[in-house]
Amino acid sequence: MSYDTTGTAAQVRGVTRRYRSATALDDVTVGFQQDMIHGLLGRNGAGKTSLMSIVTGQDWPSEGEVDVFGQRPHENEQVLPRICFVREDQRYIDDAKASHAFNAAALAFPNWDWGLAERLISDFNLPQKTRIKKMSKGQRSAVAVIIGLASRADITFFDEPYMGLDAVARQTFYDRLLQDYAEHPRTIVLSSHLIDEIAHLIENVVLIDSGRVLLTEPVEQLRGRAVTLVGRADAVREITADREVLSRESLGRMERTTVLGALTETEQRRMVELDVDVVPVSLQQLVVHLTTRDPQSGDQEVAR
Amino acid sequence: MSAVAEQRSSFARVPAAFRLQFAVPGTMIGVPVLVFVAAWALALGIVVWVHQVDDRGADLAAEPIYTGASQAALWCLVFMAAYSATHAFPFSMALSYSRRVFVIGAFLAFAALSLGFGAAYALAAWIEDITGGYGIEAYNFDLPYLTEGPGGILSAGLAMTVVCLMLMLLAFGVTMFYQRVGLLAFWAALLGTVAVLAAAVMLVTVNDGWGTVWEWLQNQTALSISGWLMLPTLGFGVLSYVTIRKSVPASS
Question: Could you tell me which residue ranges the ABC transporter domain spans (chain A) (predicted)?
């Protein structure tokens, strides 16, 4: 695999990370294009956090190279202030309140925006007098999210940011992220194992499984790989007869079927005749299919 | 946002890393000050009480009583240095500090705290000196083996500064080492250190060297001890950085 490195915020080349008992990353090559929101998707233990730790210089590769804005991040103060990565289970200074953590972050990140931080504190209803270690999981996540957003770092990593956040707080995070991203474009990487949760935010998908990158592709292109048809069961079956089916759900006489590949013109005409609708394909279904398919039959298409 | 940022000093964030140690104002300054004052008051209280329950009264008051209360704040600071390795370090990674800048900031903070402790020690010793142990010959700081050498009370303050810094760096380094290598390797290293010390003791014993050792120790003053202790202090500092350079932050 080769990448054009112009406009690339972070580039990983042939990175392997071995721990004593396990290989977390296995010959990973991937680029994160600048000023774009990327989804780093994969199951638990796939290597998402390991990859983010290495790109941010918190960890280092056993083999291979990492560049962030053209420089190696490990111990490099030229590039580290432009990176922000708060872990999902981040440890804070004991007895610290949220304000203490934010004060420290404001000193560390050159682009820190207090106005944004204060808006987010009130949006998330973050308690001012509670020590972080006494906070609920959701409140701790909010602290991490606020540091991530208000740091306005040129490349920001969010590690499963929705963990512990309730539905309202999650929506707040997604809204504020998109809003601030529109005003201050930068490179953002969201890791997640719940794919549909962040599908509407991301422009590019990096899919990782068992320490290997399975696919890296713009969301639109990925979605074009499959279609979901909804209509009468016999009509849907007629159109999808020769197709590879990703999923099929029957609801009485109706059927909802997702198949690989785009529709031909003949198929589209037939669909109109049979009153079958096309609905957007679930990214989650597609990704689950691509990660669980038999490697012998589908290798070519998946690991392009 | 361009991919090319202006070149900045690699040490530009050292002041911020220094202030990171004081991010929670209570822990690094408030608690040690409280412990310093409380231990002092407690030790004095005990001396006063001893005088009251002892019926020899005036005879006893003529005999100076020395306490170790001055050490309380020292151990408190040492504990805080270990805390910095377990908590401030992972947080500094989230703030995207390089380990080098974090360590420089932390060591400067430890040095400032040690200086503060040394100054407070010298001031307290001076108060005990001019008041004759608060008029009841009670001494927590003005201890003869520290203050009766060349340089007097100032040398004692210097010695306490160096001792404090050395122990803080040791605590920081040992904690960092433990986090890096895990329990088994930590104990192996500890036993190894004990074995080396035991070998040194045996060597001295076999060569009938204890007399020389005691003589050397008795000839030391607060000033010369400060000088000698600079060596392990520097060593612990370097070892800490070597350990942290490839440490991965633990999570909560």
Answer: 10-235
